Amino acid sequence: MRVKGSFTGHERTDHLLFFDFDETYYPHACTQELLEHVYELEEYLEELAREQFIKIIWVTGSGLPEVIQKMERARMTFSPHFIAGNLGTELYEVNKQGQLKSNSSWEKKIRKSGFSGKKIVELERELFHQYGIKLIEQTQFGQKKYKWNYYYFISSETRSRYDLSIIKHLARINGIGLNINRCNPKAGDPENAFDVDFIPLGTGKSEVVQFMSNYYNVPIRWTIAFGDSGNDINMLKAVQHGYLVKNATPEAKQLHSNVTASPYAKGIMETLQLIFNFEKARE
User: What is the mean pLDDT of residues 11-33?
Assistant: First the structure.
């Protein structure tokens, strides 16, 4: 599988820039106005990568085929240096020829986790038979090797709080990583539901930040991230400069106070310009 060319390797890297993809970098509405802002951001990022020695990483809940399909739909011309798909359970480098290569160090880390689909099926059954908690498989893309996706539909706020606490408890005692966040209908999710994603321990969006920081020996003080939903909050808190875009979900805005002045790519570009103009002024 190929995407349009980028540039990896261990050349000089001074900053790391992380993006959630859906409804942060990529606008599902794909209106002409929103896409024009994406194209402007692409040009700016290419300049930043060259002049400020930045590595760019997309960290997304989507799988690689879905990301590439959306790139084609939006006619994007710029690729990141890395794509961390399926909530960071996969990590691909993008070389200058646009070829994708799985990062062997990250892959080895995941294999050691002991994660298996069998564990998730057993946990799902226990939740239903012992606690009456029903999880609905997200079947539109199928379950992944290291990320099993479910919806939890809300019957009442009180019951939801109880059920979600049970899910968290059972995942923890079974040594399974977990992401729970309110669904975003703008990204194609149903109304009145939560995403419940089971993943290996030691993976996820914030863990990708730490891994990439170590991989390139870039201090956390030189890291930046943008997101739009509850599953981005840990990533935003793991970096020095973490921002929600203005179009972020209400849930996310309750959890994180740094929000861009404009939505989507426009807000990202404005914020990056402020950060790097400030850095230049200090030099």
Answer: 95
20 among known catalytic residues? yes
Share the mean pLDDT of the chain.
91
Geometric angle at alpha carbon 244, from 55 and 272, rounded to 5°: 45
Three-state DSSP state, 222: helix
The answer, as to whether pTM is greater than 0.70, is yes
The amino acid at 24: T
SS3 171: helix
Residue 27: pLDDT band (50, 70, 90) is: very high
Reference 60, options 71, 49, 50, 52; nearest CA is 71
Contacts by residues 40-46 (CB-CB < 8 Å, ≥ 24 positions apart): 40/265, 40/266, 40/269, 41/265, 41/266, 41/268, 41/269, 42/76, 42/77, 42/78, 43/78, 44/269, 44/272, 44/273, 45/17, 45/78, 46/78
The catalytic position among 20, 163, 195, 197 is 20
> Is 98 in contact with 2 (CB distance < 8 Å)?
yes
The string of DSSP letters for 15-71 reads EEEEE-TBTTTB-TT--HHHHHHHHHHHHHHHHHHHHS-EEEEEE-SS-HHHHHHHH
Assigned token pair, 215? 């991989």
Question: Which pLDDT tens digit goes with each residue over 203-228?
Answer: 999 999 999 999 999 999 999 999 99
Q: What is the pLDDT of residues 144-189, one digit of tens each?
A: 889 999 999 999 999 999 999 999 999 999 999 999 999 989 888 8
